[in-house]
Design a protein that fits this description.
Length: about 280
Amino acid sequence: MKVLRTQEEIKKYALAQKQAGKTIGLVPTMGALHEGHLTLMREAKKNTDVVIASVFVNPVQFGPNEDFDAYPRQFEQDCAKLEDVGVDAVFHPEPSEMYPEGFCTYVNVEGEFTKKLCGGQRPGHFRGVATVVTKLINLARADKAFFGQKDAQQVCVIRRFVEDLAIPVEIHMVPIVREENGLARSSRNAYLSPQEKEAALVLSRSLNLAATAFKKGTVQVETLKQIIKDEINKEPLAVIDYVEIYSFPALTEIETAQAGDIMAIAVKIGKTRLIDNVILEG
C-alpha cells in the first residue's frame, strides 16, 4: 500500500492510475478506523479498480469547543487495517499541506437542510466537510466516493454540492455497521467508559422501538418522536441533543412518516456526543 503525504504525491499517483485506464474509488476518513470504515473500503474495492483512502483529521470541520485535539489518532494501526482489506493507497497529509498559508477558499452549501440536525448544532461543520471532500475528490481524481449512512446528513450535503458544481463523481452511501449489541460503530465510541458504552445502547434501542411502531401502523411523526424521547429519557447518562424525523434525502419537515423517511438522533452520553439514524422500511 502506498502512503501519500503531499498533494503532489496523490496527484501523481492518481494520474498514473487514470493513464492506465483504471477507475478510482475514494474513501475519506478521519482515521481511528473501525469495521464501519472497513466496510466502506470493501464496497469501494467491489466497485472500482483502485481504492484510495484518506486519513485526515480535518480541522476546519470542528468548532472551537469540539474535540479536535482529543480526536483519536492511530495512523500505524489504521494502515494495518487498510492493508488487510486491500486498499491501494492512503493519503495522510498534515493540516498545513491541505490548508497552506494564504488558503481562503471554502465550499459552503446554503440549503435549509444544512441548518438541521448536526448542521444546526455545529455551525460551520458542513462548510469544513464540503471543502475537504471537494479537495479530496479532485486530488484523487475519484470516479466514485463512499460514505456511511451513519452520517446521512453529510451524504445529503455531499450529493448536493457534487450535483450543483457538476463534479464528475458518483457518491455511494453504505448502510450503518453496528456492533452485535446494536451500537453504531463510531470512532467516538473509544471515548466511552464501559458504563457509558452500555448506556449508549439506548440510541439504537429507541430507534428500533419507533421503527417497530411504524411497521405496526404508527405514522404520526410527533408520536414516533415521543417514543424515541421516552426511551432515551429512561437512561440517566443520556442527554438528548435532537430527535428528528424528516423526508430523505431532501430532509423536509413532515407530519406523517412513510417508508424511506429518516429518523435521526444525537445524544450525549457523558461528555461524548453520538449520532444514529434509521431509514424507515415499510
